[in-house]
Structure to design on (187 residues):
């Protein structure tokens, strides 16, 4: 894979006890959440109420709250998240959420052999050149109609579309919020 764009309408939806998860990308291609995978990127709604998170033994997690407010309890400690705050925690941890309103989060679940080189929330133009040319780089668009260039090809990403590239030959043009992940697989 050189690059691919996953449109919002092509994301795989899956129910969890607290709402709906939308899979943006899972690696390696063809993996499922129920089979071994190296990493998975998704969003999830969290309905009002208290819910236990699915355990992912042997994995690490990054959660970025996109909207709403959530109290996460991780192994007995409380963390209060507001939009665009984040936290890392072990997939082995006992984790529950408490929300008073519908909230949306962005998730990365990754194995120990995956090195998260970078993650950032960008609000302006962004050049992939600042990222590793050997990494899998992911951009999740949070705004309407962002123009991107990948390997001299031009595309428009709609809200909640995802760009996945092997390498850093991409540019995101215009203003608007999005999330960048840069992942390296250690062999």
């Amino acid at each position: 894979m050189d690059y691919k764009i996953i449109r919002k309408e092509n994301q795989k939806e899956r129910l969890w006890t607290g709402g709906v998860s939308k899979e943006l990308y899972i690696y390696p291609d063809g993996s499922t959440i129920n089979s071994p995978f190296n990493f998975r990127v998704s969003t999830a709604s969290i309905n009002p109420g208290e819910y236990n998170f699915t355990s992912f033994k042997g994995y690490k997690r990054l959660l970025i709250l996109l909207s709403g407010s959530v109290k996460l309890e991780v192994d007995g400690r409380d963390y209060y998240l507001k939009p665009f705050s984040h936290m890392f925690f072990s997939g082995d941890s006992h984790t529950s959420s408490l929300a008073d309103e519908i909230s949306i989060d962005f998730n990365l679940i990754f194995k120990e052999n995956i090195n998260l080189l970078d993650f950032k929330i960008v609000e302006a133009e962004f050049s992939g050149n600042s990222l590793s040319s050997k990494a899998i780089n992911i951009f999740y668009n949070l705004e309407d109609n962002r123009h991107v260039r990948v390997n001299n090809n031009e595309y428009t990403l709609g809200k909640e579309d995802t760009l996945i590239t092997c390498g850093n030959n991409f540019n995101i043009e215009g203003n608007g919020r999005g999330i960048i992940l840069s992942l390296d697989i250690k062999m």
In short: The chain has a mean pLDDT of 93. The longest strand covers residues 19-27. Residues 73 and 187 are 33 Å apart (CA to CA).
